[in-house]
Design goal:
The protein contains five helices and four strands; from the N terminus they run ββααααββα. The radius of gyration is 22 Å and the shape is elongated.
Length: 155
């Protein structure tokens, strides 16, 4: 779980007097967000979320590992350099999900107080978003490091 949207709802004009509800309204998970976007007709958003944040980080690490471990007879030095530069350049694409979560967090900071009803919405980040960010930063750092090391070794 990347984040949870919590709500505190208070209704003063309810039939039984005051009514209050507090709890989690929604949880934000990458797979669920991708599935919900697809089902709602936002197919491009679903594909971008699923590919850039679900498939791409794993593909990037796999290609980085192959570039690092394949011997020179299987992957020429020039091709290895191109692949490492490409991975370093495209590595930041996997950071779109944390960016979207941050925007949603700003939107979910809603506090509304009327005569009879008040509602407070707040998004709270869960450990999943921090683990995802740490993995994305590590992947990018490894990509840059491999590209730089390759560059130094071929000078």
């Amino acid at each position: 779980v990347a984040a949870d949207v919590h709500i505190n709802l208070l209704a003063g004009g309810a039939p039984q007097g005051r009514w209050q509800w507090s709890g989690t309204m929604a949880s934000l998970v990458l797979a669920q967000a991708t599935r919900d976007a697809w089902r709602s007709g936002a197919k491009t958003t679903a594909l971008v979320l699923g590919f850039l944040n679900g498939i791409w980080p794993l593909l990037q690490m796999g290609l980085l590992l192959l570039a690092w471990l394949l011997p020179g007879r299987c992957l020429a030095t020039r091709s290895r350099g191109r692949l490492l530069r490409l991975l370093a350049a495209l590595g930041k694409c996997g950071l779109s999900f944390p960016w979207l979560v941050t925007i949603w967090a700003a939107v979910c900071q809603l506090h509304w107080h009327g005569n009879q009803v008040s509602a407070d919405f707040q998004m709270r980040f869960d450990s999943g978003i921090f683990v995802f960010l740490a993995a994305a930063v590590l992947t990018n750092a490894l990509g840059y490091w491999a590209d730089h090391y390759h560059f130094l070794s071929t000078r």
